[in-house]
Every structure is written in structure tokens, then in C-alpha cells.
Design goal:
Layout lengths: L2 E5 L3 E2 L5 E8 L7 E7 L6 E6 L5 E3 L7 E6 L4 E6 L8 E8 L14 E2 L3 E5 L1
Parallel strand pairs: 2-11
Antiparallel strand pairs: 1-3, 3-8, 4-5, 4-9, 5-6, 7-8, 9-10, 9-11
Length: about 120
């Protein structure tokens, strides 16, 4: 039974930083592709960042230069370091994963596994 468990979300002031974590458990095969998505109230879920098994990363334009996705393959964890947070970053952040590559990286249907989400509020 595959599980993705996010943590680290909370309320912060604009300009502050947060680090989200996502632990993947229950896989028989290490996830190939892991990503972070977010959904603000009344808006569609959107891709934030993605990291492949070879370590290559992709970011949404809105977060480039502020957010960094990293991965600890030994722990099957993926992280999202968020710096210089803005009110428009307020959303529920979801971790997603799949055992195969996903293209395009922000295609929701390409990810078989999703976490329950963690709330980030920036004021």
C-alpha cells in the first residue's frame, strides 16, 4: 500500500521561508518521478516543481528562483524549500509520485500516487 505523507505546512509572513517534506512509503519500486503541486481555494491544482530519478528538476515560472526541490533517495523523501514566500503562494501543497517518468511534468493524470496535502498560508 503506497503512501505519501506531507509535512511542514504552516502560516508564515510574506518574505519568510518554509521547507515541506514528503515521505514515500510502501513502494516495491523506488518512485521515478516525484513532484509538488498546489491548489488555492477556487483554483485548479497546478504544478510547482518536479524531480526525476536522475535528479533533473523542473519548476513553474511563478516559483523559479524562490523554490528548490530536492530528493533523498535513500529515505524516499522529497523536499520543497520555499524562500521569499508571497501571499499568492497560499495553497494546499500536495506531493505526487509515480514509478515511471511523467511528461509533461505537471500533468496531474501522470501521477498515480498523491499525498493528503499540507496547508501553507502566507500573509
Amino acid at each position: 500500500h503506497v503512501q505519501l505523507v506531507e509535512s511542514g505546512g504552516r502560516s508564515v509572513q510574506a518574505g519568510e521561508s518554509l521547507k515541506l517534506s514528503c515521505l514515500a512509503a510502501g513502494y516495491t519500486t523506488t518512485p521515478n518521478c516525484m513532484g509538488w503541486f498546489r491548489q488555492a481555494p477556487g483554483k485548479e491544482r497546478e504544478g510547482v516543481a518536479n524531480i526525476d530519478t536522475d535528479g533533473s528538476t523542473t519548476y513553474a515560472e511563478s516559483v523559479k528562483g524562490r523554490f528548490t526541490i530536492t530528493r533523498d533517495r535513500g529515505k524516499d523523501e522529497v523536499y520543497l524549500q520555499m524562500n521569499n514566500l508571497r501571499p499568492e503562494d497560499t495553497a494546499t501543497y500536495y506531493c505526487a509520485a509515480d514509478t515511471k517518468a511523467v511528461a509533461p511534468w505537471d500533468w496531474l493524470g501522470g501521477y498515480s500516487y498523491w499525498g493528503q496535502g499540507t496547508q501553507v498560508t502566507v500573509s
